[in-house]
Predict the 3D structure of the following.
Amino acid sequence: MSEACASVTRSDTRAKAIHPVRYEEPDDAAGSSSAKAARLSGFASLASVLAFGALYGLIGAIIGVPTAAGLPIVAEELTAGRRARIAAADVAERQQPA
């Protein structure tokens, strides 16, 4: 039995020497990795966790950062038509002879 363990250990050592395993250290703050992925500032991340946590408790604190990250996306989609109309009007204004 000890020979089997020794052979596994030797093969693992060889595999690690050929393909070293990379890992990243976890961030100190719990919400900073999700905030970085969502491209939120530290203040916006903290404010969203506190606000949603105050409104909805623990579940609100958990979903605070993803919800805050989704709000700008929703706002952009809601105003997409208006921005397209303004851009078309600007192009038409530039093309008119003076």
Observations:
- Residues 42-78 form the longest helix (37 residues).
- The mean pLDDT is 76.
- Helices lie at 2-18, 32-37, 42-78, 80-95.
